[in-house]
Amino acid sequence: MLNVCIVEDDSEDYGRLERYIGRFCKENGLECRIDRFSDGLGFLEAYRPVYDLIFMDIQLPNIDGMEAARRVRETDRRVGIIFMTNLLKYAIRGYEVQAFDYIVKSVNYADFSVRMKKFLKYSFKDGEPSVLLTFNGKTRRVEVREIVYVEVVGHNLRYRLTDGEMMVHGSLISAKQTLPAHGFAQCHSSYLVNLNYVQTLEKDEVQVAGERLPISRPKKRDFVTAVTRFIAQV
Fold it and tell me: For a FRET experiment, which of 71, 132, 160, 230 has its CA 20 to 30 Å from that of 142?
């Protein structure tokens, strides 16, 4: 399933792009879902990081497309962004928000198809797994490789990430069901560790990305076995 969002205030431009996307998906055997927003503010207020690709008009009412894209990047670094414009001088600034590409609004279908194939080739080639984390109404897409460990804090979970942390309401059981079984293991009833970041094992502690976490007696045997097997398979 290809999840697409079109942020475009011109109905004619939106209709053309919608037809192009539908035709492309049909020709390439893809299922597709398309959402549409007609202004930048409404798009940002409703945004959740569930899209694979966003077609963003640069000239939008309320908030322009470039600023909307900047705000999207605060919570979603993975989604592809393709700008739509009649003014190329604005489109070339796409590097500021890691835009994948830009298209001129009068683009023909053949050119559009080439750009879509390029997007699919480079954006999905590694199949990097990710999870959606939500707390206090804010949702962020996080790639699994960014998660160092998960810690139980009261009735919440603290996700220690490579670039900071995020608190999420939930249980460690639910986190284990969401994350890949291979690559994560519990060293303690309150900690779920990404084995990629394990540095050293001691009697009752494990060093994970420079931090020392406790290893509980009930979890020790299974945890050490998981670390040993993981290292052997790397």
Answer: 230
